[in-house]
Write a structure and sequence with these properties.
This protein is of the alpha/beta class. The mean pLDDT is 92.
């Protein structure tokens, strides 16, 4: 990195904001309300998220396909998974989110010097609600909903789209995210350096290796690439 950096791109979920209720809690309630047992483990859903995002037709379709398939794979009826998906959708309030400590102040500080963009794996109907609820929607010059506008991260396409819209290039940009497999790997595939903010999952030998590792987004108020 060098002083030539003029563009800073961010991930959204668990980088800038988080749900007030975890998916585990919402899934437990969805199983209960659907009147079925835990027909799949929450970790299985997390592992398959990107796969279904690539071929979804919408928010409802996304969860019904995913949960239905997970139920069948676990030896249950597809209808059980679909019922859980519908209850999950009712309970998962996309506006019940909060900005992570330091996120707003960091974006305000960086905006004085850099062009800011957002690349998030998620449907626009979901992610826009989070951005509006946290007030982060006003922070970015461009937003790419990867999985809807483009292929999802770690594919390099969403990075290329964001950079084109900001009239920037990989060597002049950096990407900040919490996921090694989506954010760091995607940035590397697109030729960008990356800042990994692991939020409790820090490891001594992260792979793929990020350019920088920070404890929180608040530390970006003094960018490590300077």
């Amino acid at each position: 990195m060098s002083d030539s950096i003029d563009t800073v791109l961010f991930d959204l979920d668990d980088t800038l904001c988080r749900y007030r209720r975890g998916a585990d809690e919402v899934l437990e309630l969805a199983f209960e309300r659907a009147g079925v047992g835990p027909v799949f483990e929450p970790a299985t859903y997390y592992d398959r998220y990107r796969e279904y995002l690539e071929r979804t037709d919408g928010f409802a379709d996304f969860h019904e396909r995913c949960f239905g398939d997970l139920a069948v794979e676990a030896g249950h009826d597809r209808a059980d998974g679909v019922a859980v998906a519908r209850e999950f959708r009712e309970e998962r309030d996309q506006r019940n989110v909060e900005a992570l400590p330091g996120a707003t102040a960091t974006l305000e500080a960086l905006a004085d010097e850099y062009r800011l963009g957002l690349i998030t794996n998620g449907l626009s109907a979901m992610q826009r609600q989070k951005l509006e609820a946290t007030g982060l929607d006003r922070a970015f010059e461009t937003t790419v909903f990867a999985g809807e506008d483009t292929a999802p991260k770690p594919d390099p396409e969403p990075f290329s789209v964001a950079l084109d819209e900001l009239d920037s290039s990989p060597e002049r940009a950096v990407y900040i995210g919490n996921s090694l497999s989506s954010d760091v790997a995607g940035a590397r595939a697109a030729g960008l350096d990356s800042v990994w903010v692991p939020r409790g999952t820090k490891t001594t030998n992260p792979e793929p290796r990020p350019s920088y590792v920070l404890e929180s987004v608040a530390e970006l108020q003094s960018p490590p690439w300077r």
